Amino acid sequence: MVDHDDEGAEGLQSVSDPVEGEDPAPPAIVPDGGGAPSGGWRARWLVPVIVAVVAVAVVVAGLVGWRVVENRRHDAALDSCVRAVKALQGKIGSDRMAQYREAAGIKADQVKDSGTVVAMARSVKNTEGLRQRTVRCKASMSTGDLNAEADQARKIDSKFAAVAKASKAEIASRDAKALEDARAALNAKRDEASRLLADSDGRVADNATRDSLQAAIDQAGQVKSGKAKAYRDAADALQAAIDRVNASMQAKSQADQQTAAQAQAQASTPRQAAQRSGSSERKSATSNNRRKSSTQSRPATGQRGGGSSQAPAAPSAPQGGGSNWRDRLNRPDTSMHGCNSDGVCGIG
């Protein structure tokens, strides 16, 4: 008995003592009458639930991930569209469009290189006559629409970039020709001013105008600029000085003419008085001759009562001394048959 008890005790001790390094497990409960433990039944319905939950989680995660990716793609498309539109707006702003239209109106004879005009015309044609198109980027638009608008904006931007390049080259060519023409015009104006300065010596009413012209010529020779306006301004200053000198020369010429006319008038006064005196004497003599001629041509006889009259022949001059026949003719006739003092003779 003792040994048996000892063996039972040893057996219990061996069962109750855990193996070193292992977790103690609870004792299995075996129902009366035998059978499987209760954990096996739970495992049969728990596995499908876990699988379903995992599947749902995967689907939800996929949807969430797709949505996140799609939002990122949409945001990227929106940002790309906005940047493309901003770049396009920089080339089709009001200032740029005004520059393009200015360049489009430049003619071939206004530029130094006519090829720039051809290039500008070609680029304007590609933009359909600088027609502006509307490109919109809205957050409510789909990713595909945003990408399409961005592509459209880039195409338009490329066309207007060509217009900007062509217009810049054309305007530069025009400015180069304008600068060259302005320099040539200023040189020609300086030559004209120099000739006038030499010709006007002693022929101006105010010599200060010639001094101003000389100063303008000197300033024109000092112009050094890359802008045509500087040369045009110098040419305008020269022209103003030239006009003042010409006006002064004209004033002196008029004054000289007036002085000469006054001197001539003073010199001709005695001569005109003598001419007027001689003319008066000639007129007086002519008048006397006319009166004498009129007296000699009057009729010597007449008839009262409407009869005819006939002038008698003039008596011959006396052979001897005494008065001439005119004296006898003018004597009064006391017999009323002679001629009166007026030279009229009558009968009865």
UniProtKB/TrEMBL annotation:
This is Colicin transporter. Keywords: Coiled coil, Membrane, Transmembrane, Transmembrane helix. Residues 1-34, 249-348 are annotated as: Disordered. Residues 250-276, 309-318 have a biased composition (Low complexity). Signal peptide: none annotated. The chain crosses the membrane at residues 45-66. Residues 169-199 form a coiled coil. It comes from the Bacteria.
